[in-house]
Amino acid sequence: MRKLYTILLILALAGLSTASNKPTFVSYDFTETRRTETDHRECITQISLIGDEYINYYYREDVYGSITPIVHSVYFQNSYQHKATVKEKTELVRNLLNAKVFAAKSDPDSNSKEYFADLDVRINDREGRFYFNTPPKSPFRKAIHEIMTKFARQAKVDQPTNRAKSTTTTEGDRQPARQVQLAEVLANPDKFHGKRISVIGFYHGEFEGNSLSVDEKASRTNDFKRSIWRSEPSTFADKVAIKDKNNSWLRVEGIFLRGPTGHMGLWPGEIVRLTRVEPVSRPQ
Fold it and tell me: Which CATH class is domain 173-279?
């Protein structure tokens, strides 16, 4: 029986199953918030078998605040680089079916932003999509989580090819900020990448647009080349220091990151983890 079961799985994975011509598809995404007394970040992992063929892996850390002197965050994706073997696909399907993946039940809706997972599975003629708002603690959830992470690990796609190039190094949110002109930052993005800066710019915020521009004209005409994307305050910012005001000149302190960034990658850079936002007079 076990031999026959394995043969049927291989035929299904090869697209030769008479029950269905649909290719196997598995996608497992999970986002978890990691907090310590000195660091707050969101970590996003995506593992998938696409089109019954390629294994894709994506990992990103978004730092919302950190007060260590030096901060490291990792971002990489291994997409369409590893073509799954029949053995890898067969083992994945067997493990998921043995774990009774289609018996999964989505968690009730929740406002929690600490954890979220999305499991989308299609095997032969069965399909299911499930959502989880809590970390994998039950035996069933732990089994599914381990199956997917082991799948990526054995395929050797869960690590960056070059960790140095995949790592962003920035200064901590309590390091001294350099007072510099916004135009100089735009002209030398590599020089200021990852540095704490203090700049003055004209701010305009709207849906899908948060621009800190060198002047009002650049803001009014959506001149992205003369603007940077303005992000949110650091988790560790003093709330008293955040005096926001739309359509006005502001002094903003935070970490500069070179782009492209912002909505649709239209901005050449961004300022993140803000620790000071203060209305100022128009520069002379």
Answer: mainly beta
Q: Cβ(213)–Cβ(227) under 8 Å?
A: yes
Per CATH, the number for 2-165 is 3.30.1560
Which residues have CB under 8 Å from 176's CB, separation 6+? Answer: 196
Stated as kind and residue range, the H or E segment containing 3 is helix 2-13
Amino acid at the residue 278 = E
Listed in order, strand segments (DSSP E) in 99-247 are 115-123, 126-132, 167-171, 178-179, 196-206, 209-213, 227-230
**Domain residue ranges in the chain:** 2-165, 173-279
Cis peptide before 136 (omega within 30 of 0): no
Q: Could you tell me which of 32, 116, 63, 43 has the C-alpha nearest to residue 235?
A: 63
| 121-153 confidence digits (pLDDT tens) | 999 889 999 999 999 999 999 999 999 999 999
Which strand ranges, in their side-by-side order, compose the sheet holding 70-83? 126-132, 115-123, 25-35, 39-50, 54-66, 70-83, 167-171
The strand pairing partners of 200, in sequence order, are 251
Beta bridge partners of 205: 210
3-state secondary structure of 138: coil
Helix (H) or strand (E) holding 269: strand 267-279
Using DSSP bridges, classify how beta strands 115-123 and 178-179 pair: parallel, antiparallel or unpaired: unpaired
Q: What is the mean pLDDT of each run of 10 residues along the chain (284 residues)?
A: 41 43 90 97 96 92 98 95 91 96 92 91 94 95 98 95 96 98 97 98 92 92 93 97 96 97 93 98 87
